[in-house]
Amino acid sequence: MVDKIDPKFTATASATGGRNGHTATDDGIVSVDLSVPKAMGGPGKPDTATPEHLFAAGYAACFGGAVDFVGRQHKVNAANAKITAAVSIGPREGGGFGLSVVLTVEDPSVPQATLETLAQEAHAKICPYSHATRGNVDVALSVKGG
């Protein structure tokens, strides 16, 4: 069963040409040319992105906000945590293609055990990207605190 939401903001984007085309948001804030990487048999055009680049950037930003939110609830300053989302794509055992993600959370100013707690709680309870991927995408957490 899918939980219903009360939408507070909607971002809208369109793409033409698929993975070798162009994508942009309706407000023009994001506008990028796309190209399939050479590693996947594509042209790998310079200065182009992939959907995985865009997903990685969004997930990293969203997860950073979730870690900061959880930190504030625990009275821990995690606002400067660096989140790196490494999004991989490849063939699935059952056919087609799938994604996997490694989220790395780094903040030397927060003790390791505390940062692990914040990251786990952000992943389990707060981040909407984590909610969307749960059960569909293999997401691993790597935490590097002080």
UniProtKB/TrEMBL annotation:
Output the InterPro entries linked to this UniProt entry.
KH_dom-like_a/b, OHR, OsmC/Ohr_fam, OsmC/Ohrsf
One protein family per Pfam: OsmC
Q: Which SUPFAM superfamilies match?
A: OsmC-like
* Disordered as annotated region, ranges: 1-26
According to its UniProt record, which protein family does this protein belong to? Belongs to the OsmC/Ohr family.
Which NCBIfam families did the record assign? organ_hyd_perox (TIGR03561)
Q: What is this protein called?
A: Organic hydroperoxide resistance protein
